[in-house]
């Protein structure tokens, strides 16, 4: 009996670690999913995320409040996304190239913002503690023992799912992403919808970055996102643009990361470097499988994804 | 583009009533050439201006910054050679973006091909030990080229035959290449003598590629310039390049014409990957002497910037790579003298990139640059 509880606790510990590793991916991925559902491909997730991490840490250190730090991170991501929106939605500039530029700019700006904070440490964001419930053996910490970011990420997934599939605004957003010409002809505000979606994606990416610097590590280091923004992009494709699958995929990718770290730490025979390639391999496989599915009928990707909309020309 | 009908020398029917007068044709041609130089130059100037405002906001002097860029990147023979040395890998990395761009593809996975090419070259050097360098060095380059071409060519194949988005696929492949290379460098190929910094065994002094005659810059620069010239000839002066441009402009039309679009996509992406891998080869064979983590220095990403600034024109890549090489060469000096973090150069690069993208939307919008378009409008009104 007691042995069962011990092994349960180990399982719980692993699951908790996986969930913490998955949270930044969920946050950034769900934001990018909304952006891509509106027909815009923003490759600048990494840049918005790393700027969110720097700004979030800076604000939290200055104000002493983790909550304000999270807001600051989300705000920084939103501002950078606004720049992207002006360029791609407003001026109809190339989305792929603008996203790359955004990543370079975000990495640069984060280095400047965070320059004075390298080496500082903060207490991690407080974890929920419900007396009785959190101490439940086996499942207590998994269900009731996380910080606010984790719960926010899970709420966001459910919220975005509900928004996309159960509200009129969500229907409009998906319609804009599938055919901007038709929705424009219907009198819907294509560019406004896309701009708002881009802002939402930026705020989510910024929040994901703030989670890294305020709860996950918790300190600021240059380029600390370490490619998580790109994984989030891959995740959206892997999830075939479905919110709930983003969460599932993030747990899978987060699990691969955790496995890699443990394999390295424990000196197991597993090749850690190759394990880190797993999420990318899985995504390429998913892309190929998706392309096979397309032969049988209807692509899963938003039809207007990445296509420029310029009504006046 | 409608502009092509006004190019001088095109056999337009004499009786064509819509034919613009010859003077206008020449003016239009001149104006287009001026536009294609003036807009990027204006954009770069605007980028520097925004960056200057940014520096002022930080309480730093933009003039001091420019002075340091000049001294660190261009002002002395030493600085110039340093810039050229940094420009060499950028030439190859930019070609990896510019060649597929002819087909309308955006390939951003050059970094992976660079690293993989470097590892392949270092690995190939081991069984070749003892051979004449005249034979071994080209074989090393060949190993690198094969690895890079296969890697990015696979992205092209996924695009051509499975419809997989090449931008995302190339990025994923790049990360897989980095993981694979790290695995090889830290595992199978690791030199047991490299304790703190895992590296492959040295390729040996005999196999090192030397400097260009009279310069302190390695041969990568010379080959890189040749590669750009060859890429220009391929894309602008051959039927294959023409076919690629057609497919990039209108895929459906190209397919109806019977052009082998799939094979074009695979060949151009593979060619791009081969170029990127050459950057890795020269980093190993001319700079480091073995393959290690320094291969992953971000040349692939700066190469994307170079290609876009050059509007994917292989000839324009030459000056742009030199400019960015100079800016990156001066970053250490800027960091020390102005107490700015090294990320400052990234801010400048990001701003330049964004401004150039905005400037892309300006072509044909300025009256002095497009007399033919404005003349047509006048005719349409009257």
Automatic annotation (TrEMBL), chain A:
InterPro entries: ABC_transp_permease
Subcellular localization: Cell membrane
Signal peptide boundaries: none
Ranges annotated as spanning the membrane: 6-28, 40-59, 71-93, 100-119, 139-164, 195-213, 219-239, 246-268, 274-292
Tagged with keyword Membrane: yes
Sorted UniProt keywords: Cell membrane, Membrane, Transmembrane, Transmembrane helix
Membrane disposition: Multi-pass membrane protein
Pfam families: BPD_transp_2
Name of the featured protein: ABC transporter permease
């Amino acid at each position: 009996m007691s042995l069962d509880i011990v092994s349960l606790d180990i399982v719980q510990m692993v699951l908790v670690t996986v969930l913490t590793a998955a949270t930044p991916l969920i946050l950034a991925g769900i934001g990018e999913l909304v952006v891509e559902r509106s027909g815009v491909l923003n490759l600048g997730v990494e840049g918005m995320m790393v700027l969110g991490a720097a700004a979030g840490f800076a604000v939290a250190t200055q104000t002493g409040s983790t909550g304000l730090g999270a807001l600051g991170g989300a705000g920084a991501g939103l501002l950078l996304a606004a720049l992207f929106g002006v360029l791609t939605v407003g001026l109809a500039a190339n989305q792929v190239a603008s996203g790359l530029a955004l990543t370079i700019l975000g990495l640069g700006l984060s280095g400047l913002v965070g320059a004075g904070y390298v080496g500082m440490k903060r207490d991690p964001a407080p974890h929920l503690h419900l007396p009785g419930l959190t101490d439940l053996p086996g499942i207590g910490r998994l269900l009731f023992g996380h910080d606010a970011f984790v719960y926010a990420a899970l709420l966001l997934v459910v919220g975005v799912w509900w928004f996309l599939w159960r509200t009129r605004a969500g229907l409009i957003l998906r319609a804009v992403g599938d055919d901007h010409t038709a929705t424009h002809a219907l009198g819907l505000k294509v560019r406004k919808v896309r701009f708002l979606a881009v802002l939402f994606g930026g705020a989510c990416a910024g929040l994901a970055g703030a989670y890294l610097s305020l709860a996950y590590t918790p300190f600021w280091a240059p380029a600390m996102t370490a490619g998580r923004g790109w994984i989030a992009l891959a995740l959206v494709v892997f999830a075939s643009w479905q919110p709930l699958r983003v969460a599932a995929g993030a747990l899978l990718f987060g699990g691969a990361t955790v496995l890699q770290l443990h394999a390295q730490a424990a000196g197991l025979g597993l090749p850690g470097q190759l394990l880190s390639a797993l999420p990318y391999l899985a995504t390429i496989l998913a892309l190929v499988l998706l392309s096979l599915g397309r032969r049988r009928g209807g692509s899963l990707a938003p039809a207007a994804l990445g296509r420029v909309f310029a009504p006046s020309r | 583009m409608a502009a092509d009908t006004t190019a001088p020398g095109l056999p337009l029917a004499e009786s064509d009533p819509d034919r613009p007068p010859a003077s206008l044709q020449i003016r239009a041609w001149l104006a287009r050439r001026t536009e294609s130089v003036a807009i990027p130059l204006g954009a770069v100037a605007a980028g520097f201006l925004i960056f200057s405002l940014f520096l002022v906001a930080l309480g730093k002097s933009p003039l001091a910054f420019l002075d340091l860029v000049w001294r660190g990147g261009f002002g002395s023979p030493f600085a110039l050679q340093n810039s050229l040395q940094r420009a060499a890998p950028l030439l190859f990395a930019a070609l990896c973006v510019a060649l597929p761009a002819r087909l309308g593809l955006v390939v951003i996975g050059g970094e992976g091909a660079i690293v993989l090419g470097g590892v392949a070259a270092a690995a190939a050097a081991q069984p070749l030990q003892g051979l004449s360098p005249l034979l071994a060095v080209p074989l090393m380059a060949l190993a690198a080229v094969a690895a890079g071409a296969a890697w990015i060519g696979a992205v092209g194949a996924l695009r051509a035959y499975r419809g997989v988005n090449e931008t995302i696929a190339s990025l994923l492949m790049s990360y897989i290449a980095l993981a694979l290379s790290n695995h090889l460098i830290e595992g199978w190929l690791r030199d047991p003598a490299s304790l703190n910094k895992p590296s492959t065994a040295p390729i040996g002094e005999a196999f090192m590629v030397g400097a260009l005659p009279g310069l302190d810059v390695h041969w990568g620069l010379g080959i890189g310039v040749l590669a750009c010239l060859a890429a220009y000839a391929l894309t602008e002066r051959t039927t294959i390049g023409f076919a690629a441009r057609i497919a990039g402009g209108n895929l459906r039309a190209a397919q109806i014409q019977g052009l082998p679009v799939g094979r074009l996509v695979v060949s151009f992406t593979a060619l791009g990957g081969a170029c990127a891998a050459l950057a890795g080869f020269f980093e190993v064979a001319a700079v480091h002497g073995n393959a290690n983590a320094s291969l992953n220095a971000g040349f692939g990403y700066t190469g994307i910037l170079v290609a876009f600034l050059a509007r994917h024109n292989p000839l324009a890549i030459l000056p742009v790579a030199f400019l960015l090489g100079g800016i990156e060469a001066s970053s250490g000096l800027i960091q020390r003298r102005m107490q700015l973090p090294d990320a400052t150069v990234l801010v400048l690069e990001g701003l330049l990139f964004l401004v150039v993208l905005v400037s892309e939307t300006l072509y044909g919008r300025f009256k002095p640059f497009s007399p033919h378009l404005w003349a047509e409008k006048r005719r349409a009104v009257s």
